[in-house]
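User: Quick sanity check before I run a bigger batch. Here is a single chain. Can you write out its predicted 3D structure?
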Amino acid sequence: MIEPTEVTNEKRRAPRPAPISCGVAMLVSLVMGPGMGHYLVGRVRGGFAFSGGAFLALWGGLGSVMWNPTVGLLLLGVAFLIYIGAVVDLGRLSPEDLGPAKVFPFIAVGGAMFGLPIVGAVFLRTFVVEAFKIPSSAMTPTLRVGDHVFVDKMHHGADAAERGAIVVFPYPANPKQDFIKRIVGLPGDEIETRGSSLFVNGFELKRCRLGRITVSVGSGPSGEMEAYVEFLGSRAYIVFYNQERVEEPRRWTVGDGEVFVFGDNRDNSHDSRAWREGRGGGVPIVTLKGQATRRFLRVGEVSGAPVDEIVSPSSSPEVKRQIDDCLARRPSTADATPPPPR
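Assistant: Done. Predicted structure follows.
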């Protein structure tokens, strides 16, 4: 007699996939960012901790650099430590600690870590703030060759058109090239130069003479420049003149929808006075990209100072004292503001 065979409905479990090795997970974290390797070995909580921490520290640092470079660099250092910590954490795991890969967190977080920074960077650069490097000595001593400045692009066009403001714009004769200059005239203003004196609508800009200062301009040799602290509205800044170059009095009328711009290194700047084959010309207001607000990097130092902050162009204590004296006697904003055009 044949005995009936016992039938069971119990399904045999599928074999558990072999976990990804720690070495592969460490490589993924190195290439793709903190926490990404943790998702591949089933360590979701650790992945979230490292990914989130690094993301916050990185973007917090980038956002703080403009306003406080010390805090910004500190946060960027924290992001780097988190990056290294994520790799070290994976290296200490034993085979028993490894689990199956968590695909969904890996894809979701990976997409966010790569997509959001790209979208955020494009958005910030286009609409909020952009970094520029100073290529020439035309704005010396306010901005030196090699300085890096932030430009506030939230205030562009008409919002950036203020007398005394430092602005970035495409050079009218070659729009692919960006220039950075100071606005001295608004639409309709009468601009006149007599020697080293600047007049706006017949009003001579007030200034305080510092005398001849030995400076190094750009990559050229040291030389003597005639220096003044000039006052325009609420702004005060140092301008240079090279007395070996004396020009005849000249006059321009700023066109409608334009601003007139000068470099602070007045005799060594290619600006509105020289454009249009020497006849002079303005910058269309609609092309102003924004005002330069802060200098965040200078050769040999991390800054964060406003671009309008006066820094002595000389190490001489006497020059520094003269600057302090000039600023102590600075005119009021009303007394330093030219009248409207006639």
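Residues 22-128 form one domain.

User: Great, the batch can go ahead then.
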